Amino acid sequence: MGLLENKCAVVTGAARGIGYAIAEVFAENGASVLMADVLKEDLIESSERLRKQTGQNIRYSLVDVTNQQQVEAMILKSMDELGGLDIFVNNAGIHIGHELIDFPPDEWDRVININLKGSFLCTQAAAKRMIENGIQGCILYISSASGKKPDPEGGAYCASKSGVIGLMRVAALELGKYGIRANAILPGATRTKMLERVFENTPELESVLMERTALRKVAVPQDLANAALFLASGLASHITGEQLVVSGGEFMDT
Ligand SMILES: NC(=O)c1ccc[n+]([C@@H]2O[C@H](COP(=O)([O-])OP(=O)(O)OC[C@H]3O[C@@H](n4cnc5c(N)ncnc54)[C@H](O)[C@@H]3O)[C@@H](O)[C@H]2O)c1
């Protein structure tokens, strides 16, 4: 028996990287999964792969998390095609780095809109549907260790990820009376396309990171997916409003 037997889960940014790994571990643990992303071809390919691999009800939704109508349609699709909405994972995100004095305001807006406003729009739509249907669900947020510490060129990214932590804590506070839990995962460096690009732009960063990481390794997406599985499952039924850092000891919160 998997930890998420008969649960219905939506994961944004699920075409690849951490989002894909979360969809995979959820499906392997018995959940039906709606995978949402802007990358149409990757989304179709990855959802077909996961359906074949797990035999679960795996669907996809082409959605930009900054578009309220598309977000509403994604939630309806979960209700119609999965038959419910027990778990919602706010994972979609981007990273654009510039020093503050050179940060183009339109790029600032793009980061904040996708990482923070997108999480707000999804929280609102998902929570409304959970409340209407009496679902004691769970909302997860993939923030970042960068939500708690400054990164070079991280003005917009760090601000967005700190904002996500604030949003999650208000969600936990306001939705707890409906039995809905909200928690955040704060990944450290994790081997995905996003990190590849950061390493390309700052090649010295990888060795610097290794020196200050207690476990001397970068996470793989499955490390984050396992944390998401725990927080989404009944094992975490009394945990809400919390931040789980998964960084191999690169960042130890105080
Ligand atoms: N990789 C890391 O080191 C790291 C560290 C800390 C936090 N994170 C966070 O983890 C999450 C996943 O990142 P990843 O490393 O897997 O990166 P990734 O770039 O591989 O995946 C991000 C996914 O989000 C999707 N996406 C982007 N904008 C979207 C939008 N507007 N609507 C819907 N989908 C959209 C992308 O298409 C992509 O599939 C992000 O929120 C990221 O900030 C990553």
Number of beta-strand segments: 7
Series of H and E elements: EHEHEHEHEHEHHHE
Number of helices: 8
Task: List all distinct small molecules, including ions and cofactors, that are bound in this structure.
Answer: nicotinamide-adenine-dinucleotide
Instruction: Indicate the overall shape.
Output: globular
CATH architecture classification: 3-Layer(aba) Sandwich
Name the assembly state.
single chain
What name does CATH use for the topology?
Answer: Rossmann fold
Helix content: 40-55%
CATH class: Alpha Beta
The strand order across the widest sheet is: 3-2-1-4-5-6-7
Quote the average pLDDT.
97
Tell me the β content.
Answer: 5-15%
Whole-number tally of structural domains: 1
The CATH homologous superfamily is termed NAD(P)-binding Rossmann-like Domain
Taking Cα atoms only, what radius of gyration do you get, to the nearest Å? 17 Å
Strand-pairing-aware structural class: alpha/beta
Q: For the record, give the distance between the C-alpha atoms at the N and C termini, rounded to a whole number.
A: 37 Å
Word description of this protein:
The protein has one domain (8-189, 220-245): 3-Layer(aba) Sandwich (Rossmann fold). Helix 4 (105-132) links the parallel strand 4 and strand 5 (138-142). It has helices at residues 17-28, 40-54, 68-82, 105-132, 155-175, 193-201, 205-212, 221-232, and strands at 8-12, 32-37, 58-62, 87-90, 138-142, 181-187, 243-246. It has a seven-stranded parallel sheet, sandwiched between helices. Helix 1 crosses helix 8 and helix 3 packs parallel to helix 4. The mean pLDDT is 97. The protein is globular and about 45 Å long. It starts with 7 loop residues before the first strand and ends in an 8-residue tail after the last strand. It has 254 residues and is of the alpha/beta class. Nicotinamide-adenine-dinucleotide binds next to helix 1, helix 4 and helix 6. Nicotinamide-adenine-dinucleotide (NAD) binds at residues 12-13, 15-19, 37-39, 63-66, 91-94, 114, 118, 142, 144, 187, 189-190, 192-195.
